[in-house]
Amino acid sequence: MDKAILNPDIQNYIDLNLNSDAASILLKGIPFSNVDSKTLVQQIKAKKRCQKKLPTWFQTENIYYPNKLNIEQTSSEVAADYKASLVSGCSLIDLTGGFGVDTFYFAKHIEKVTHCEINDELSKIVNHNYKTLNISNIECLNDNGIEALKRIDQPFDWIYIDPSRRDDTKKKVFLLSDCTPNVKTFQGLFLKYAKHVMIKTSPLLDIKATQNDLKQIKELHIVAVNNEVKELLWVLERDCKSDFIIKTVNLTKQNKQEFDFKFKDESYALVEYTKPLSYLYEPNAAILKAGAFNSVSSLLDVSKLHKHSHIYTSDILIEFPGRRFKIEKVIHFNKKVFAKERIGKANVTTRNFPLSVGDIRKKLKIKDGGNIYLFFTTNMSDEKIILICSKI
């Protein structure tokens, strides 16, 4: 950590060059002799990356930024705030602290938080930033989290771990057994020291396979931000005997869409199939990741168009965790039939349909955009149809 970076003149230079081209800065040279040009450019690029993802850090003076990979791997503030709302108590230890965004938000709900980070440079950066952010209830340990847990040898209310999803060659991995540390190996140790354990995993992880790898699962939180699944949060509880609940959430600027269901109930949930009715519903990305296709129909009292279409319909408009549309017209998928509608511009979505969006646009000569929404799908009679909709 080069403390010269924190010089007021250098900090001002960083702010003035947030939108400058890095190559141009290096070619032109920097007006400072006491700091390495590559280090300075790294700070500029890292701060720019944090503008939307980490606004608290971006807006605070004298924040020191780590390398690009650490910024990429950290949670956004939106996601960190959500996961922190799930914890409470006196103590929490973050075994894989990283840039410390999750730890920062945990400290708003927990009296004392311990941040473990094995990388010496990153641990110093995080410690500096917490002081700059006026956070006093976080202790930073430059140590391997597993070894720190054993050495401290005391109970915590919560253990949080976000295993590294990079292998020895820095390639991305996502299976639990390929991540570091391997939580499958250490989950017994975690539950020895804490009644509650939260494990953050890749959104690519297979839910059915993972639930066999983990023990005593109480909840799985599937977190989407602006309809993009960002992380899976597995909450383990010591001596938990109940069937676990899947909680889906889509965090947007406008609202928080939530839908919960029991994992074991999905295969037994009753589904009604029908022709398109007055309204159409498209589940958000968190629900689709959860595979709650039957539970959505059963719990929200909406019907499906087809077993594999995963869009829903009803005659009465309801609140729904996803997008809602008014069905204006239903036509069969036929080029001549569609031509009569004189639609040259529309938003196109496919669900259980043999053609891609690109192929449909080319075949039917539809430009992107406008206020018309077209859903190309298959109905309960296995007919290919087009739903002409307006957004609600």
UniProtKB/TrEMBL annotation:
Name the UniProt record assigns to this protein: Class I SAM-dependent methyltransferase
Domain PG-1098 ferredoxin-like: 279-321
Top-rank lineage group of the source organism: Bacteria
THUMP-like domain span: 322-391
Annotated GO biological process: methylation
InterPro entries xrefs: PG_1098_Fer, SAM-dependent_MTases_sf, Thump-like
Species of the source: Winogradskyella pelagia
A GO term for molecular function: methyltransferase activity
Keywords, sorted A to Z: Methyltransferase, Transferase
Sections of the chain in a coiled coil: none
